[in-house]
Amino acid sequence: MTSPSQTAASTSDSPGPAPKGLKKEKKKGTGGELVGRSPGQLMWARFKRDRTGMICAIVVLAFFLVAALAPVIASLYGKDPYTLYGGQDPSLLDEFSYPAGPNGGMSSDFWFGIEPGLGRDLFTNLLYGMRTSLGISLAVTILVVVTGTIIGITAGYLGGRTDYWVGRLIDFLLAFPSQLTFVAFMPAVIALFVAPGDETPTYIRVIALILVQWALGWMGLARLLRGQVMSLRERDFVEAARITGASPWRIITKELLPNVVTPILVQSTYMLPLFVTAEAGLSFMGVGIVDPTPDWGRLFKTAGQIYENDPTYLLFPGAAMVIFVLCFNLLGDSVRDAFDPKSGR
Fold first, then answer.
1. Are 124 and 74 in contact (CB under 8 A)?
2. Is 2's pLDDT higher than 70?
3. pLDDT of 65
């Protein structure tokens, strides 16, 4: 015979459905608030609560999506940025070669109007111009972030002569005024690829734009990361990794790099709109992308020549540029605040 206590013990040990209260407690224990979250999950949770940041992120993604799908949108729209519609239909332009219709020729056929003189469609020119400018600026930003990260972290960790010479190189390159240097170096870089007197292909101009902006754009990020790493390399977790025999490469990639991801992401969100405006400025001054290749800066250049007689030509390219740069800068602020737990914005 078994005693009542043994019967109770065997009953408690036997498998079976747990009490309802215990089930609820387990579910609550595996829920969102009681389970530890990674820094990335905490950052994303803070970012989602920022309504301004979410709206700006959607707008920025929409710009990139529209730029990437420019050929598809143009095909559905039924126009392209190269056809001279004013020559095909003389009624689109007046005797002074300006749009005959009101508001720059805006109509159901030409949503944003047409270009004076040639009669090209402004809507498709803006789509392809955004594609050109955003593609170049994105490539420059990626190269700048990779270069600045490698040089900055390496110089900050190694120190000594490496840090000294890298610091002097950064100081030397920062002494160049960026915009004037871009204007002066663009013809020199193009001359490396194209013989004098030959027409410069568009891809050569794109390569030159990327190289010039990359060569003079990585120093700020490198200097920032150098200072961050110099303060991190004396921390206990780095010393522990060094004592255990970890190689410098492992210390840099496993210990230091994860701790500087925040400034890298924040600086990236600030750099890309700067490169967009820089590329547009170079094309506006005639040393970047030139006619007939669509480009944001070239649209501004054309608008500057005709604004007295056709002020609406600048409306849509200017509004798109302002919205994109503003949203990207606000997105950078939101990313910074999401990574900073002490932020109170």
1. yes
2. no
3. 94
